[in-house]
Amino acid sequence: QLPFKDSSFNFVVSNSAYQWVNDLPFAFSEARRVLKKQGIFFFCVFGAETLKELRFCIDKIRPGSGFFLLPRKDKLKSDLISSGFRDIELICEARCHNYTDIMEILHWLKYTGTSYSEGSFFTGLGGRSFISRLRQLYESYFRNSDGLAMTYEAVLARARK
Fold first, then answer.
1. What angle, 0 to 180 degrees and rounded to 10, lies between the N-to-C axes of helices 52-61 and 128-142?
2. Full-model pTM
3. Which distant-in-sequence residues (6+ apart) come within 8 Å of 55 by Cβ?
4. I need a labelling partner for 150 at 20 to 30 A (CA). Which of 56, 60, 70, 80 fits?
């Protein structure tokens, strides 16, 4: 619930926040509520392809582990429509970054504060044996000439009230 009066702003802008929200239609409705007539909503989120390599390996070790899924482009669009937005434009861009090893990946995620407000991003790594298995799988599936590949997908959105 945004602490602003109805129709307060010409623009609402958000960067890398909405992917952690459980109820996107409500959150988007709040953004729409505080926009003036013809106001524009801009946001960027990490999309469903983000960390796909890591999710793949974790699922191999612990199938159905409940690794938090980031929003898909089609879901974002349907949530924007159901919240009353129009003239919706969504652009997806995926980029691959390479890391030296699995520990660099895990440290980077921790450093960036990657977490989920309703619990942990995953329910605990499970110690050395889990990390060892994760390292083996990641090395075998995602090692390239530049290191260990990790995908990050950004979804850029623009919608009008």
1. 130
2. 0.83
3. 67, 69
4. 80
